[in-house]
Structure formats: C-alpha cells, structure tokens
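Let's practice the habit of predicting before peeking. Look at the sequence and jot down your guess about where helices and strands might fall. Then scroll down.
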Amino acid sequence: MNIKQNIRQQEGQYYIDFNEWSAKTINVMVYPEKRVYQKLQDHINKYLDGPNSYLEFY
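Done guessing? Here is the structure:
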C-alpha cells in the first residue's frame, strides 16, 4: 500500500498513524518498541529530499 494514502493532516501538521497503516497493509498492529518506530522513521526519511521527520508517541 502506498504510504501517501496514509498521510493525515490535523491543525496544519501532517502525520501517519502507524497502527492504521500497519493494519491496512499487513493486518497487525505495530509492535510498541522504540527500535520499530526508529526503523519506520528511517524508512519514511528515504522518500524525503531533506529528511526532517520526527516521531511523537501517543
């Protein structure tokens, strides 16, 4: 599934709900481990001209 389909916007900020993305793509929730989120951030940054993403945990 294309990552662009999972980008959401709220109050002028863009975000990806990793659990939503993972559930749609592979039918499981994201494993709540920092290394998993870091790997996702690294993956997303590959698609940006100037990697500037950051993670916020909720």
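How did you do? DSSP finds two helices and two strands in the chain.
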